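Example noted here:
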Amino acid sequence: MSELQHARIAELCGELRLGAVPDLYGATAQAAAARDASFSDFLEDTLRAEREVRRSRARDMLARTAGFPAIKTLDGYDFGFATGAPRQQIQELASLAFVERAENVVLLGGLLPVFLASLREAFPAIDWDKAYKEFQAAGEATSPVVPGGKAG
């Protein structure tokens, strides 16, 4: 491909706000050609890569604006220190496979907000606010009423 064509593609991507595509399409085109993929497969791969770059950029920006003193991941987690949290169980939870199996998970302690944030990111199609309201309504419907008029 010529430099002129690359410049035209980059300009079009700029107008369409596809900022990562000019850097991505060359590699995705080579990968598609290597596996004899269709043009539709190439286009889908390129758009998925653009989406991943955007999500990564958004995660980084949200982490910076949150003002966390440090960004921690499971890669740096000291499983030897936290003996009550078995590596296999933590990695199973991190895979979010329980969501696809429609299983419930009960988390105790200070990691709940971080875990819920990762669920929102992993499953953006879910209306989490609606799900939370339904969860609250279900809890209120099944909670026993104790003297004083408060749910227990």
